[in-house]
């Protein structure tokens, strides 16, 4: 009889692989941004492709792809559940796919440009807190296996997306344009932290959905 590999262990390998890809990708994007800030810019097409926060850049597409994978995984895996548990997983899938679309279109930056960083943070919290509270309470009432872990993972992503963005805005606001290193570092921390948070959501959803319907 062959030993059984636990779902968590199988998940760890490909999550670590994706994390390694993120390190290489975001590290390269940070280097390109920093070099350009110091007056050594690469070709415009390369700068856009490796931009840390540009729409259509590989870093943003990486995080978008991870969130989309969460949505698909939750939809497909949760389909094996029954009744209200299946409905809960449908809500998880919808949440992840909405986040993927918002990340792809940089909706957060668009709102911020029309209002202010503070107003954007308040608006984000006003949407995220009740949504996550509803997800957590429904998971508890409907007895979803490890539903609290999934809700906590989404809360971690929301904290990274909103909190790190506010930190980046603060760094930019209190310095002059000559401080290229700190501005580039703040953007790197924001985008890379958000990517890692999305990977954490993917890992939690993958390990949780494997036990759904048992």
Q: Give the number of helices.
A: 8
Helix content: over 70%
Question: What is the overall silhouette?
Answer: globular
Q: Can you write the helix and strand succession as a string?
A: HHHHHHHH
> What's the total number of strands?
0
Determine the oligomeric state from the structure.
single chain
Integer tally of domains: 1
Low-confidence region ranges: none
Q: Between the first and last Cα atoms, what is the distance in angstroms?
A: 22 Å
Summarize the structure.
The protein is mainly α and 214 residues long.
Could you name the key traits of this structure?
214 residues, single chain, mainly alpha
What is the element layout, followed by pairings?
Layout: H1 7-37, H2 44-49, H3 58-78, H4 83-105, H5 107-114, H6 117-141, H7 147-173, H8 180-209
Helix pairs in contact: 1-8, 3-4, 3-8, 5-6, 6-7, 7-8
Give a written overview of the molecule.
The structure is a single chain. The protein is mainly alpha-helical. 80% of the residues lie in helices and 0% in strands. Helix 7 runs antiparallel to helix 8. It is globular, with a radius of gyration of 19 Å. The model has no long low-confidence stretch (mean pLDDT 85).
């Amino acid at each position: 009889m062959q030993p059984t590999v636990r779902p968590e262990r199988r998940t760890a390998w490909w999550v670590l692989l994706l994390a390694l890809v993120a390190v290489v990708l975001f590290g390269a994007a940070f280097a390109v941004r920093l070099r350009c800030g110091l007056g050594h810019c690469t070709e415009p097409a390369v700068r856009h492709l490796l931009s840390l926060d540009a729409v259509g850049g590989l870093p943003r597409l990486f995080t978008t792809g991870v969130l989309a994978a969460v949505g698909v995984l939750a939809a497909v895996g949760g389909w094996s559940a029954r009744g209200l548990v299946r409905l809960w997983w449908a809500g998880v899938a919808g949440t992840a796919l909405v986040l993927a679309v918002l990340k792809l279109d940089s909706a957060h930056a668009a709102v911020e440009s029309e209002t202010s960083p503070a107003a954007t943070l308040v608006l984000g919290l006003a949407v995220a807190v009740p949504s996550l509270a509803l997800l957590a309470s429904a998971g508890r009432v409907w007895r979803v296996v490890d539903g609290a872990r999934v809700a906590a993972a989404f809360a971690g992503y929301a904290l990274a997306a909103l909190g790190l963005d506010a930190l980046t805005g603060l760094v930019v606001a209190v310095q002059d344009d000559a401080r290229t290193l700190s501005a580039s570092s703040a953007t790197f921390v924001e985008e890379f932290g958000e990517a890692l948070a999305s990977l954490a959501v993917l890992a939690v959803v993958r390990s949780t959905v494997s036990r759904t319907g048992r």
